């Protein structure tokens, strides 16, 4: 039972905006937002997970996805943004340092 809970938590965190911007490379996060046709030019490292999620919310809707299914994904992104806010707060000292050292994650 404990192993299943850890596996479930790992799968849930794999899509988390904070994990996408803090743990993965800057290029991977930038490429994903570029592929989704996000209108964001850069993602600051401080509260980057929340910003990443809002960039996904404001990305263009793909042509092959109908509006009903696309809008049903919005609550999931909002829940992820709330969880990312908690994780971003916990990682605040690290992300402040990374913002000063490396600057924002540039998308374009």
Automatic annotation (TrEMBL):
Superkingdom field:
Bacteria
Sorted alphabetically, which keywords does the UniProt record give?
Answer: Lipoprotein
* Keyword set includes Lipoprotein: yes
Report the InterPro entries cross-referenced here.
DUF1375
> Which Pfam families does its entry note?
DUF1375 (PF07119)
User: In its UniProt entry, what is this protein called?
Assistant: YceK/YidQ family lipoprotein
Naturally occurring in which organism (per UniProt): Pseudomonas shahriarae
Q: What is the lineage of its organism?
A: Bacteria, Pseudomonadati, Pseudomonadota, Gammaproteobacteria, Pseudomonadales
